[in-house]
Write a structure and sequence with these properties.
mainly alpha; 14 helices; 82% helix; globular
Length: 398
């Protein structure tokens, strides 16, 4: 039997290993598609506002559908449901590849496909997160499983964008979309061969199941504050993602490879945060880490907004990626460590809907505002708003 170090303890569980391997391939494909789609949008339209609209279309369904999805998830067999959703995500990517390869793609179709992706992700994200507790046989390994899951996301975020830049230069957007479509087979295969009992299901009407989850979140002070912080961080700090093509093409006079390096720098910071979170900090130190990371995000945004040098901008994005990931993943660990198993799907869906929903709203606002005043002022204002919130949080004791 392999004796894994504490930072990798969740890998001693067979089901988590299968998930980890399959999700690693799938997530890398997702990041390649995300970069290719952003480049396609800006190449076809040249519009920062259109970047914001596309990002909003891909993320806003999580805010609108997420809480409902959580109640639906808790009423079904989660493993079988996840296999179905992964298959639909793969089909979405392949259709997008076909439309792009045959030059039938336009702004309307891009927004439509992004909206479909958002609807599927509104179910996929909380579904995967809520299943993690069943992939590990020892609940004490759950925080490590969550951290390693985040590490996959951030490592792919570090590797995927530069790889996407190279693929875009050699092949084109359609090949990137097709590669992502094929990547979902890895996770589907891992899920199919897992040996695990059926997941517990919530009983009662859909309305009662939904209300039970909302009441738990509303009447638990720690959860209310965590959700507020997730909302503010993603409304402000995460908005930088929408504007990276503007920075790459207009401010740095670069190409798709430049965009890949900018995205990859933020991914490097996120990877660093995952390593920090994998060592199982206590709840008290986790709360302090979340606040400190939010402050780091605000300062990094101000530095990024004022920079006109690629090197300084890359350094600021490393810090920004670290801070955003610490805030979001740290919050997820605190929520899942305290949530009852029967409510896990609903609690996770509230978290993911808040995280990605306000990410969508922030991206839309950033794109629309940048079209009027430029990208750097929008980044600077967002950083200032986040810094004010951090000061308020500090005064009330975190």
């Amino acid at each position: 039997m392999i004796h894994w170090p504490s930072a990798l303890s969740a890998l001693r569980h067979r089901n988590f290993c299968l998930y980890f391997a399959g999700h690693a391939i799938s997530t890398l494909g997702t990041w390649i598609q995300q970069v290719a789609l952003a480049w396609l949008v800006y190449r076809l339209t040249g519009s920062a506002a259109m970047l914001g609209v596309t990002t909003c279309a891909a993320l806003l369904p999580q805010l609108l559908i997420g809480p409902l999805a959580g109640a639906w998830i808790d009423r079904h067999d989660k493993r079988r449901l996840l296999i179905l959703i992964e298959g639909l995500l793969g089909m979405q990517a392949l259709v997008l590849a076909l439309l792009t390869a045959t030059e039938q793609i336009d702004a309307t179709l891009i927004v439509s496909m992004a909206t479909l992706l958002g609807v599927l992700n509104a179910v996929d994200t909380p579904l995967r997160q809520s299943l993690l507790s069943q992939f590990v046989d020892d609940r004490s390994d759950l925080p490590n499983a969550l951290a390693l899951n985040a590490m996959l996301f951030t490592l792919s975020r570090f590797i995927g964008p530069p790889l996407a830049g190279l693929l875009l230069a050699v092949t084109g957007e359609a090949a990137c979309f097709a590669l992502n479509g094929a990547s979902y087979l890895a996770l589907m295969g891992g899920l199919a061969v897992m040996r695990m009992p059926g997941s517990p299901r919530a009983s009662g009407s859909f309305r009662n199941v939904l209300g039970e989850g909302l009441n738990y979140a509303r009447h638990t002070p720690q959860i209310r504050l965590l959700m507020l912080s997730v909302m503010v961080v993603n409304l402000t700090a995460s908005s930088y993602v929408v504007l990276l093509p503007v920075y790459a093409k207009d401010l740095f006079a670069g190409d798709a490879a430049t965009l890949g390096w900018l995205w990859g720098a933020a991914g490097l910071g996120s990877l660093g945060s995952s390593i920090v979170l994998a060592v199982k900090p206590t709840q008290v130190s986790m709360s302090r880490l979340i606040l400190g990371s939010a402050i780091a995000c605000a300062l990094a945004m101000l530095a990024f907004a004022s920079s006109r040098q690629l090197g300084m901008s890359l350094a600021a994005l490393v810090v920004l990626g670290f801070g955003i990931s610490c805030c979001n993943v740290g919050t997820n660990i605190l929520l899942q460590s305290s949530a009852p198993e029967a409510l896990r799907g609903r609690v996770v869906s509230l978290y993911t809907s808040t995280r990605f929903g306000f990410d969508a709203i922030g991206g839309l606002l950033a794109g629309l505002c940048a079209a009027q005043v430029g990208a750097p002022p929008v980044i600077a204002i967002s950083g200032g708003v986040l810094l004010v919130y951090c000061a308020w949080l500090w005064r009330r004791g975190g």
